[in-house]
Design goal:
There is one protein chain. The protein is mainly α. It has one domain. Helix content is 87%, strand content 0%. The protein is elongated.
Length: 159
């Protein structure tokens, strides 16, 4: 049975990965649909503003903090090697670190950077906007599932 400080660490991991899954789910299910319904210039401007606002302490503490917690959970699992939950703990950490945090870096951030370089009303922005919405949302779906799955398998490790 996982107990003591390790139990608290896993609970924090569940909370963090679950919160990130919720944010990503909101974007996948209604935010991106709403932005896609706007004229391209307005959609580009709104998404660029959202991307700037996202890199603030409130969200970054949860997003990056969950990555740190996932690393800590994996390290402690390797050191303690508990009889129960080791596969789930390592799987949860991998899901979040690669499927959420890693995908953000290799899939979503480059698209955000490209969008940020475009002038909202420019023809290039109008052409790129539907491509951006489709590709960014696809990878966001993957991040949503990975974050939620990480929370779920962390929970399974405690049962």
């Amino acid at each position: 049975m996982i107990e003591g400080p390790f139990f608290v660490l896993v609970l924090a991991g569940i909370l963090g990965t679950g919160l990130v899954a919720g944010v990503f789910c909101g974007f996948s299910t209604f935010v991106m649909r709403g932005l896609a319904a706007l004229p391209p210039a307005q959609g580009v401007a709104a998404m660029n503003a959202i991307n700037v606002a996202a890199v603030r302490p409130a969200f970054m503490a949860v997003f990056m903090g969950s990555a740190v917690l996932s690393v800590m959970i994996a390290v402690v699992t390797f050191v303690v090697w508990p009889d129960q939950g080791k596969v789930e703990l390592l799987t949860g950490s991998a899901l979040y670190l690669f499927g959420s945090f890693g995908l953000t870096i290799i899939a979503n951030v480059p698209r955000n950077d490209r969008l940020a370089k475009l002038t909202a009303g420019a023809p290039e922005a109008a052409v790129y906007w539907p491509v951006y919405v489709r590709e960014w949302t696809y990878w966001n779906h993957v991040r949503t599932v990975a974050s939620a799955a990480a929370a779920l398998v962390y929970i399974l490790a405690l049962t």
